[in-house]
Amino acid sequence: MPVSKKDKYILRELAREVAEIAALPIQQETISLWKALNGLEPKRPMVMIDQVCWNEMNVNDELTILAQNEFCQDIERNLRRTLYAWNHMRADMVVEPVVTVLKAINGTGFGIEIEEERAITDSSNDIMSHLYIDQLKTDEDLKKIQIPDARLDESETARRESIAHEIFDGILDVEMQGMATMFNAWDWIVQWRGAENVLLDLADRPDFMHRLMSRVTEAALTLLDQAEARGLLAQRLSRIHCTGAYTDELPAPGFDPQKPRAKDVWTCGMAQIFSSVSPAIHKEFEIDYAVKWYSRFGLVYYGCCEPLHSRLDIVKKVPNLRKISMSPWVDVEKGAEGIGRSFVFSRKPSPSFLTFDTWDPQAVEKDMRDVLEVCSRHGCPVEFILKDISTVRYQPRRLWEWADVAMKVVGG
What does R_g of the chain's alpha carbons equal in angstroms? Predict the structure, then answer.
């Protein structure tokens, strides 16, 4: 479907708004603050909001998609969300004079599809419950996991790039973006098997689980090899796992933008299912495999929702580690003591504050100040990353006010 004059006009007008914001001096100031934090010499704590329940956010049609072309709709959605976040809940976001277009890359899958049953409570929300069907019960089943063969679709990539330049030249730069890779093998395995089956087999069939993890790790590392050799990796990242990725430490010497290497960029990873296992099992079945991945990258963000305060000794074995997730379920004191000045204490405030019958900004402020007090005593570089926001009870102002409270707390 060709791009109509109307679609082009819609996108160019939105792009002009983004370009005006991107030209503000505060963008470079905020980038400098992120670089300081990521270099473990923070000027102040940083704040980011991501993974928003956008289905509940639309106010005055600010997020209403008007373009007809599907390719244009995707870009319009991103532009509108950028403008919305900047206008209502910017925190420490950075707006760049760039429109990002994904390269068309095929063959990145592992040959196995998710089979599941879903429970949906809000049809407008993409957050739902999943019951995964076990597809990997035997050694024979492990053959279902295939080695990827990642390839660039050159004609489709060229088509996307051409359209983007036609629309945005003279307003925003067009950046063709490759793969932003991460190592969350146990999330994949849970989706292929179901959480209960994974946990039972870790206890009852550890040898089988080692064979499973070995095969998944081999497939992931082969995909990384292909991405490097074929120029498919992202050449730069402004965010990594919902946090600012700006740094003067990357890319590494010898960087070629046509063939980015893993050591030129950040990666991230997690093993959320391992919240329910011992640190020893976490090390044996996750860290001992994951180090093969992390050792190849420039910088690493580790963790997500799993409470890592009780296993920092094994997490610190991750090569090139810079940020450690501190979820709502951690013991903040133990986490801060273990992290100290060596890594970024990446605090994930609980999004549940936004879901209660009564919105209580004072409770949000107290929670954040309590964390800052502990981190200050232990010298931790700290950031607040609000994510996994499944609902604000259709009251967008709750999230806007959360951003205001957070910035007041950190002195932004």
Answer: 22
**Sequential DSSP letters for 323-359:** EEEE-TTS-HHHHHHHHTTTSEEEE---GGGGTSSS-
Q: What are the pLDDT digits (tens) for 103-118?
A: 999 999 999 988 877 6
Structurally, the chain folds into a number of domains equal to 1
The answer to whether 344 touches 382, Cβ cutoff 8 Å, is: yes
Residue range 222-232, pLDDT digits in tens: 999 999 999 99
**63 near 80, Cβ under 8 Å?**
yes
CATH number (domain holding residue 349) = 3.20.20.210
Q: Is the pTM of this model over 0.90?
A: yes
Asked whether 324 and 312 are in contact (CB, 8 A), the reply is yes
Coil/strand/helix, residue 22 = helix
Domain holding 362, by residue range, is 5-410
**Cβ atoms of 193 and 136 closer than 8 Å:** yes
Judged on CB neighbours under 10 Å (0-12, 13-18, 19+), 403 is buried
> d(Cα 379, Cα 136) in Å, to the nearest integer?
45
Q: Which residues contact 237 (CB under 8 A, 6 or more apart)?
A: 180, 245, 265, 266
